[in-house]
Amino acid sequence: MTSPDTFAARSSRAPHMGGWRHELQLIGYSSANFGKNLVLGGVDLTLLFMLTDLLDIRPALVGMLMTMVFVGDLIFDILAGAITGQARERGFGYRKMIVLGALPCALGFAAIYAFPWTGLRDLWLLGLILLTFRGAYAIIDVPHNSLLARVAPDSRSRGRVSGYRTLFSTLSSLASVTLLAPAVMSAAHHGRMGTLALLGVGGAALACATLWIAAAASHSDRLPPRRANIRPAPLILFPKPDGLVAAMVAIGVITGFVMPMFARTAIYLTTYGYGRADLAEPLLLALTLGQFPGALLWTWLVRFADKTRLLMASHGVTMVALLLFALAGSDKGLLIGLTVLLGAGLAGVYMFPWGILADVIDFAEFRHGERREAAMVALVLVTVKASAAASTGAIGWVLARMGYVPGTVQTPAMILTFKIMALGMPMLGSMLSLLVLSRMAVGGKAHAIVLHALERRRGSVSAIPAIPIKQAARVKRRPGWFVKKSELSLRA
User: Fold this and answer.
1) Is 37 within 8 Å of 164 (Cβ atoms)?
2) Can you spell out the DSSP letters for 3-50?
3) Residue 225 CB neighbours (<10 A)
4) Which residue in 84, 350, 388, 445 could disulfide with 374, CB within 3.0 to 4.6 Å?
5) What is the pLDDT of residues 158-217, one digit of tens each?
6) Shortest CA distance to 429 belongs to which of 257, 314, 294?
7) Over residues 255-280, mean pLDDT
8) Which residues contact residue 330 at a Cβ distance below 8 angstroms, ignoring those fewer than 6 apart?
9) Under 8 Å CB-to-CB from 209, ≥6 apart: which residues?
10) How far is CA 232 from the centre of its chain?
11) SS3 for 134?
C-alpha cells in the first residue's frame, strides 16, 4: 500500500504523470466552458436589451419575467444537484447527463434569439422558453462542475483545469461581446431579425458540439472506483454542514456579490467619476483581455504552489490594481493598463474556487463518510448566482437612495458612491477572501493525505491502519478549517 509521503510526492509530480494525452483530456473537458459561457453569458448580456428594445415589453413586465427566471434558476440548480447525485448512484454518470442536457439547452438558446424573427409576442411562451433553457442548462452545469473532481484526481491537475476553463470562458465572452451583442443591437436598430436568428442557431450548434466533446473527453482511467463500503444516499438537496463548506459558500458570496462590481459600475464611474464616457468600452475590453495572460500565468504557477495560496495572490493582485486605479487620475492609457492588470488578477479570483471546491469535496467525503459532490456544486452555484443577482439589485437600490438622475451633473457624494462601488467594494471583498482563505488548510500535501486515506478506505471494508499524526503536523501548523490532527488518525 502506498504511504502518505509517497502519495504526496506523486501528487506534486502530477503535471508530468499523465502525459500529453491526459492533458488533452483535461483540455477537452474544459472546452465545455466555452459552450456553457457562450449560451448563459450571451443571454445574460443581451436578454434585458432584447426584452425592452427589441420586443418592446414594458419594464414592469420585464421585471416580473426576470424575477421568475431567476427564482426558477435557483430551484433548477438545487434539483439538478439532487437528480445528478441520484443518477450517478444508479449508474447514469455525469457524462451522460451532459449529453442528455446539451441538445435541449442549445435548442432553448436558439429559440430565444429566433423569437423576435417569428413575430410572436406572447410573454408566457417566452417565459416557457427561458425556463426550459435554464432548466436544461442546470442539467449540464451541475454534472460538468461535479466531473472536475473525477477527471482531475489530484490538486495540481485541478488547478490546471481551472485555468483551461477560464481561458475557454474568456474566449466565449469575447465572442458574445464582439458578435452576439452587436447582432442584437443591429436587430433593434435596423430590423435584422433573420441575422440574429441565424447567429443564435450557429451559437447553439457550437455550444452543443463543445459540450459533447467535453463529455467524450472526460472518460478517465483515474476515476475512483465505486464505493462498496458507503451506502447509497437518498435524495440529497444539500451537503452536510461543515466548516469547509461554509468557507466555500463565503467565497461564493464574495465572488458573486462584490468582485464583479467594477465591471457592473464601470460605465457610471467613467461617465460621471472621470467625465469620460468614451472610456467605458476600452476599459471593459481591457478587463476581458487581461484575463488571458492572467489565466495563463496562474495555470503555470499551479505547478509550484497550492491553489489556496494562488487564490490569495490573485486577490492581492486585484487589490493592488484597484488601489493604483484609484490613485491614477484620468490618464486613459494608464487606466487601461491598470485594468488589464485587474483582469489578470480577477482571472485567478474566478478560476481557483472551482478547483478548490473539488478538493473540498474529497475532504468532506473523508470527514463524513459519503460523497455529496453534486449537492455541494449545486449549493455553490446557487450561492454565486444569488449573490450576483443581489449585487445587481443592491447597485440599483444604492443609486435610488442616493438620488441618482441619469444624464445630469452628479453631486460629489454620488461620484464618491460610484468610486466606492467600483473600487472600494471589490477591495473589501478581496480582504475578506484573504481572511477566509487563511483559515482553509486545504493545500496540496493535506489533500494528498486525504486522497491516500480515501484510497485505502475504498480498497477494503475492514479496518485500515491509522494515518500517522506526524504527517498531519507537517501539513498545517496553525488552526484551520481543515480537520483536527486527531481526525487524520481516524480509521476508515
Assistant:
1) no
2) -HHHHHHHHHTHHHHSHHHHHHHHHHHHTHHHHHHHHHHHHHHHHHHI
3) 8
4) 84
5) 888 888 999 999 899 888 888 888 888 888 878 889 999 999 999 999 999 999 999 988
6) 257
7) 85
8) 274, 275, 276
9) 35
10) 28
11) helix
The pLDDT tens digits for 12-60 are: 444 444 577 788 888 999 999 999 999 988 888 788 778 877 888 887 7
The single-letter DSSP state of residue 407 is T
Q: What is the pTM of this model?
A: 0.78
DSSP state letter for 403: T
Q: Round to whole Å and give the CA distance between 85 and 375.
A: 7
Residue with cell 470527514: 367
* Fold designation for 21-219: Growth Hormone; Chain: A; (1.20.1250)
* DSSP characters over 193-237: HHHHHHHHHHHHHHHHHHHHHHHHHT--TTPPPP-TTSPPP---S
Q: What's phi and psi for 82, nearest 5 deg? A: -65, -45
Angle formed by the axes of helices 280-289 and 155-175, nearest 10°: 150
Residue 454: which H helix or E strand, with range? helix 444-459
C-alpha span between 425 and 262 (Å, rounded): 9
The reply to whether domains 21-219 and 236-481 share a CATH topology is: yes
Domain boundaries, the chain: 21-219, 236-481
How confident is the model over 368-416, as pLDDT tens digits? 877 788 788 888 888 888 888 788 778 878 887 888 777 777 888 888 9
Quote the percentage of the chain above a pLDDT of 90.
Answer: 30
Residue for grid cell 473525477: 150
- Round to whole Å and give the CA distance between 88 and 78: 16
Find the largest Cα–Cα distance for the chain.
74
Q: For 268-318, give the secondary structure using H, E and C.
A: HHHHHHCCCHHHHHHHHHHHHHCHHHHHHHHHHHCCCCCHHHHHHHHHHHH
- For residue 242, give Cα distances in angstroms to 99, 188, 214, 217, 453: 32, 49, 31, 33, 19
Q: Which CATH number fits domain 236-481: 3.30.497.10, 2.40.110.10, 1.20.1250.20, 1.10.287.370?
A: 1.20.1250.20
Taking CB atoms within 8 Å and a gap of at least 24, the contacts of 316-321 are: 316/345, 316/430, 316/434, 317/341, 317/344, 317/345, 317/348, 318/259, 318/342, 318/345, 318/346, 318/349, 318/426, 318/427, 318/430, 319/345, 319/427, 319/430, 319/431, 320/345, 321/345
